[in-house]
Amino acid sequence: MNVDRRSVLKLAGAATVAAGVGTVASATGAAAAVRGGAAPGAVDAAPAARPGSAAAATRAAALVAEMSLDEKIALLHGEGWTSGTVGYAGRVLANTRLGIPALYLGDGPNGVGNGSTGVTQWPDSKTLAATWDPGAARAYGDAYGAEQAGKGHNIALAPCINILRVPYWGRSFETFTEDPHLNAELAAPVIEGIQTHPVIATVKHFAANNQETLRGSIDVVVSQRALHEIYYPGFRAAVQQGGAGAVMTSYNKVNGAWSHENRVAVQDTLRDAWGFDGLVMSDWGGTHSTLLTAHAGSDMEMPGSTYLGGKLKDAVAAGTVSEATVDTMAAHVLTAMFRIGLFDHRLPDPATVLTKVVSSDAHLRLARSISVQGSVLLKNAQVLPFTRPSSVAVIGGAADAGTRTHGGGSGAVTAHGTVVTPLAGIKARAGDIPVTYTQGLTGAADAARAADVAVVVAADYTGEGSDRTTLALPDGQDELIAAVTAANPRTVVVLNTSGSVLMPWLDDAGAVLANWYGGQEQGSALAAMLFGDEEPGGRLPETFPASEQQGPAKTTAQYPGDGVHVFYDEGLAVGYRWYQSSGERPLFPFGHGLSYTTFRLSGLRLERSGDGYRASVGIRNTGHRTGSEVVQLYLTAPAAAGEPSRQLKAFAKVTLDPGESRTVHLGLPREAFAVWQTPDTGWTVVPGSYTVAVGRSSADLPLEARVRIG
After folding, report:
1. How far, in Å, CA of 631 to CA of 654, rounded?
2. C-beta of residue 104 within 8 angstroms of C-beta of residue 93
3. Active-site residue 283, yes or no?
4. How many CB atoms lie within 10 A of CB 469?
């Protein structure tokens, strides 16, 4: 299952990559405004019927008709594990009378968790997002789904796709990005991959779960517009394009209502507007009521039966919840089970495969490939790749015993076999090149000074339940890096972190590589990049601030909240949108990433395509080795739309040989121009002049053209 990047030239927005060089509009990329195509006015957001949904709903309704009230209620709550290692987070017992299989719910987004053995410890979700590659996301989902199925888990509690609102979030490594479009384009293929097996994907946490601090009590005060434009698009794509069978609600309240009993979010939006037909479960302990939950469109309490057990039966008897509502809740669970194949392709009892090895050489190759594709080369002063150095000094506790390959909490995964540390990977690749290792500050400068090149590895460790309190590296690692870079300008700083960190030593570093939490193949992937066997293929899925003072949420009320509420006063200005609107200059912008070769973009051209447009741009590899570039398209709406400028709407990852050229076509359907203004207007295309900008990051967009609508 090794991924060949040259075969994965899929780009966001239903586009294609054609051979040859595109027509050049002008040398600077400026072009006359294109008229026609997309029309102003409301956008029809009615969901299309998913294949298999009608048949699954029919089978579910027929089965519900055979069930007693007790049997239906038994589907609506489950058990958690209490002791020992069972390999899953919860279960719903089987109904042997009617042949309904048990449900086994297993963590987590970065591999099979809950203490399972014999599984692959994959690179984290941040690494996957940094690939900017829907094909890699699909391949990961397929392999991950196979491992969950092999362990008998027919519900995977993944993916996590909450927007990275603040870089301090403790579960940053579990999620993808700060951008709703990139989020959507990665969520759908991961889910599709998981559900090629009889495993229901559970997209989580719906919605606005963007911090760990006070997550179980905080009330998120956020505009409906920000929800629909920033925080919802990934979930909408997950259910409409990806076909997710389950949605997990979040711990927090949203605008006064607990997420699991928030009818505006669950029934009105998720079900009625988006057409979701599957089950909605709570996060563990996230159910708070019987009546409000049942009337919100939610279905399952996890774990336990405090509210959707005996109290639900009592509510039916009292007439406060109709049995028809219970029928609908049970049907949602069964519809997902039928649609994803849980009845027709039954998995083994997890107890019988507890020791089974489901990892494989193919999965390890894919894990290594994702780590390479998702590593981001932030800076390179001609230090990388190494050209047969005479000696290498490896420095830092994180290079060996203190290596960080995964985060904590429900995202933790126990690797089967060897976890390749950076030191082990470098030694294995170096061959007869001398490699020294120094763990801490004592002797680090001398070791770096004596070596041809130095590699200093730094890490943090984050997990579910708490946020970071600072963006500075912990445990004196900034001082260590400063000493090493001062001693040897040919120093590569490797960051195994959950997200952005401050870099007071940046000017002195020869190269900086964001390697995230790279999974058990992290060391092998790192060595391949250092020695030039592979090039880092990633681009930043989040902005790296230059200081703690940058970014939105500058007051306590805005983060982490006043103890009762947290106010999302920045509205749409999340991530790079904030930096563009505020004028703050980040350390590294969203979408940034360097290659071992060079590229030239030229000839942006727009043409009408269906009810929207198609952008074409030429790209040429002007360097001396094969490499990848991510062509990124950003759209600026007219002022009347009230939108942030330059928002990502399409992208393509392209791999080219030296001297090779291609024309990249990026689709801009009418929906790409739409904004969500009020509940009455919904999604609307505002008339006026739109600017299309194409380049290599949110801050490097040399090509522009205009589209006039209306």
Report:
1. 8
2. no
3. yes
4. 9
How many residues can be counted in the chain? 710
Relative orientation angle of helices 522-530 and 361-374, to the nearest 10 degrees = 50
CA–CA gap between residue 147 and residue 363 (Å, rounded): 10
Nearest CA-CA partner of 602 in 661, 561, 551, 649: 661
For tokens 């919904």, the residue is: 682
Coil, strand or helix at 362: helix
The Cα–Cα gap between 293 and 274 comes to: 19
- Residue 65: CB partners within 8 Å, gap ≥ 6? none
The whole-angstrom separation of Cα 290 and Cα 307 is 5
Residue with tokens 């590895």: 457
Buried b (16+ CB within 10 A) or exposed e, 222-256: beebbbbbbbbbbbbbbbbbbbbbbbbbbbbbbbe
Nearest to 672, CA basis, from 37, 136, 188, 23: 37
Radius of gyration, alpha carbons of the chain: 25
10-residue mean pLDDT profile of the chain (710 residues): values are 34 31 33 61 70 92 98 97 81 98 96 96 98 98 98 98 97 97 98 98 97 96 98 98 98 98 97 97 98 98 98 98 98 98 97 97 98 98 96 98 92 95 98 97 97 98 95 98 98 98 98 98 98 98 97 96 97 98 97 98 96 97 97 97 97 98 97 92 95 98 95
Is 25 strand, coil or helix?
coil
How far apart are the C-alpha atoms of 575 and 579, rounded to whole Å? 7
What string of H, E and C letters represents the secondary structure of 455-519? Answer: EEEEECCCECCCCCCCCCCCCCHHHHHHHHHHHCCCEEEEEECCCCCCCCCHHHCCEEEECCCCC
In Å, how far from its chain's centre is CA 656? Answer: 26
First to last CA, the chain: 48
Catalytic member of 133, 142, 283, 467: 283
The structure's pTM equals 0.94
Phi, psi of 479 (to 5 degrees): -65, -40
The sign of the dihedral angle between the CA atoms of 693, 694, 697, 701 is negative
Q: By three-state DSSP, how is residue 219 classified?
A: strand
Note the helical H segments in 195-266.
224-226, 233-240, 263
Q: Are 521 and 364 in contact (CB under 8 A)?
A: yes
Q: For 413-431, give one letter per residue: b (16+ CB within 10 A) or e.
A: bbbbeebbbbbbbbbebbe
CA-closest candidate to residue 103, choices 432, 413, 332: 332
Q: What is the rounded CA–CA span in Å between residue 547 and residue 218?
A: 26
Phi and psi for 95 in degrees, rounded to 5? Answer: -105, 100
